[in-house]
């Protein structure tokens, strides 16, 4: 299997679904995606039941990175927020995420407390502050295959010109992948792609500020990587609300009209076959 760095060097766009808990990781992994994206919004919501507003700590998130990479066979791109503090925190975060098995860490230029990139009220730090974080991240990593994804949220508050200026500076500081958050039209996305030669990330959030395009359309624009961070938890939330609502209203799970994952197939997905095999082998030992 190629490393994330090697895969991004290929001409075909890389599609990464957002994973937010162990079930989503195992399902995505079973379907054959080439990479996964640990969504901060979904992971904080699933793990802590809180909004993605700077409330999760480094310890909260690095434990999720470790769990997700253990359950997956493909590279994980992990949201690292703002690095969880100052420059020393960025160093600690990069080391921790790399040790936990992530293939890349995403660091953004928002002021603390940060917010989800498609919600209002986001403000960015001075450019030089973010450049220091990128330089520390690049200096800290042990392997050149551990990628630094640098995200700017400047488009919403300061305009696209400033976002592009920051992206250029991020590249000069050593970022491997550029993430210009929240362009608001296809024309803006085209301009982003014309402005850079290195890998670009497109963030496809259903209901967000950026038009949602297909992988084919994004590749034609010039993107190398597309993440779909919200699709999984929005789909799961809708299905749970419908299923639980049917149970509440009727007292009968059979009245739920949606599709259910087959119980035995789900048990196999969770690894029960290894448990069954273990029990069979040791039952035979007891007989002998």
Automatic annotation (TrEMBL):
<dbReference type="InterPro" id="IPR040442">
    <property type="entry name" value="Pyrv_kinase-like_dom_sf"/>
</dbReference>
<dbReference type="InterPro" id="IPR015813">
    <property type="entry name" value="Pyrv/PenolPyrv_kinase-like_dom"/>
</dbReference>
<dbReference type="GO" id="GO:0016787">
    <property type="term" value="F:hydrolase activity"/>
</dbReference>
<dbReference type="Pfam" id="PF13714">
    <property type="entry name" value="PEP_mutase"/>
</dbReference>
<dbReference type="GO" id="GO:0016829">
    <property type="term" value="F:lyase activity"/>
</dbReference>
<dbReference type="InterPro" id="IPR039556">
    <property type="entry name" value="ICL/PEPM"/>
</dbReference>
<keyword id="KW-0456">Lyase</keyword>
<protein>
    <submittedName>
        <fullName>Isocitrate lyase/PEP mutase family protein</fullName>
    </submittedName>
</protein>
<keyword id="KW-0378">Hydrolase</keyword>
